[in-house]
Write a structure and sequence with these properties.
Elements lengths: L9 E3 L10 H17 L2 E5 L7 H12 L3 H6 L15 E3 L11 E5 L31 H26 L17 E7 L15 E6 L5 E6 L5 E4 L5 E3 L7 E5 L1 H6 L9 E4 L2 H5 L6 E8 L6 E3 L6 E3 H9 L13 H6 L8
Helix pairs in contact: 1-4, 2-4
Bound molecules: 2-oxoglutaric acid and fe (ii) ion.
């Protein structure tokens, strides 16, 4: 459970850009990250070692979501378009019945698809499948591939800092990097015209409360705002846009790996009036990166005890995510109405 907080801390990563950062500086950063992940589970990272500006990141998302729906559907996951080959990567359209979760998205994995794990053969979903790219995205592909690589590398650095803070050697999480399945997801929350909630739920949401299920998430959010994080008092604390920052948070699996020292904090996105009023009429854009180990990676708590294989963990989770359910004769919307949840890593 997160502690009582009223705003998210800011962590400066500028020392990571130095050619040889001082050992004490690295130890201090390690400690700071661990303290924050043990209290809020969420923070803003500033001066992260990335070559991409926010304008470039949201320029990519904007370019993708401007593509004609017909072309986007050609790269939709098979759950949405039964004749498509891609089962895990690709596009998912908005589901009109999901009024408090109204978003479309596009997901890519590493540019060189990871080696298919032994246990993956004959499975319905291929977690190691290659990425799919829509016609009309042109220069977006190499840029998104490069963004994925840079966020993967930053995640590796953060993991080694966390390892040290957890009393382990810096390479303790090295096995998590082998054939890593990390997902870079671009999200578009279309502007919602009606300001009044359509259900009894207040306020109106565009992403329902959830914890991320994996290791750690690095989120670019645009200036629209609306992200909120739950503190131990049950209050939703606003996490507004901080220029140039990336929001980082811990997932359920990392909370387990840390032996309960870190918290996976509940968060949601509130429909912001800024999204309706935006001059470009685009709504909200966000770009989360979910660091994920490889399918065969054995994950266990730093304190020892039972282990799980990441591929089995994620496939079990997928059984509860509507995008991956296959109910003959039922439209996706009908399945959502029957009460299954949508994916959150
Ligand atoms: O769009 C956002 O700001 C948050 C998205 C999110 O929490 C998720 O995709 O897990
Ligand atoms: Fe999330």
């Amino acid at each position: 459970m997160a502690t009582i907080f009223s705003s998210l801390p800011i962590i400066d990563l500028s020392i990571l850009a130095e050619i040889s950062p001082g050992e004490q500086d690295l130890r201090d950063l390690s400690q700071r990250l661990c303290d924050v992940f043990a209290s809020t589970g969420f923070a803003y990272l500033v001066n992260a070692p990335l070559s991409f500006s926010h304008e470039q990141v949201f320029g990519l998302a904007n370019a993708f979501f401007q593509i004609d729906e017909t072309e986007k559907l050609k790269v939709a996951k098979r759950t949405f378009v039964g004749t498509n080959k891609n089962t895990y990567r690709g596009y998912f359209p908005t589901q009109p019945s999901q009024l408090d979760n109204l978003k479309e998205g596009f997901e890519v994995g590493p540019s060189r698809a990871p080696r298919q794990a032994g246990l993956a053969r004959h499975q319905r979903f291929d977690l190691s499948e290659p990425n799919v790219w829509p016609i009309g995205f042109g220069h977006g592909r190499p840029q998104l591939e490069s963004l994925h690589q840079q966020l993967q590398s930053l995640s590796g650095t953060l993991l080694s800092l966390l390892a040290v803070g957890l009393g382990k050697s810096p390479d303790y999480f090295a096995s998590y990097l082998t054939d890593s399945l990390s997902t870079l997801r671009m999200l578009h929350y279309p502007p919602q015209q009606q300001r009044t909630p359509t259900t009894s739920q207040d306020p109106r949401l565009c992403c329902t409360p959830h914890t991320d299920s994996g290791i750690l998430t690095l989120l670019h959010q645009d200036p629209t705002g609306g992200l909120e994080v739950l503190n131990a008092d049950g209050q939703w604390i606003s996490a507004p846009y901080v220029p140039g920052s990336i929001v980082v948070n811990i997932g359920d699996l990392m909370a387990r790996v840390s032996g309960g020292r870190f918290v996976a904090t509940m968060h949601r996105v509130r429909t912001s009036s800024a999204s309706i009023d935006r001059p470009d009429g685009m709504g909200r854009l966000s770009v989360p990166f979910f660091f994920e180990p490889g399918e065969d990676c054995v994950v266990r708590s730093v304190d020892g005890g039972e282990s799980i294989v990441y591929g089995e963990y994620v496939r079990r989770k997928m059984n509860t995510w509507v995008e991956y359910m296959d109910v003959p004769g039922a439209t996706l919307d009908a399945r959502v109405r029957n009460g299954v949840s949508v994916k959150a890593y």
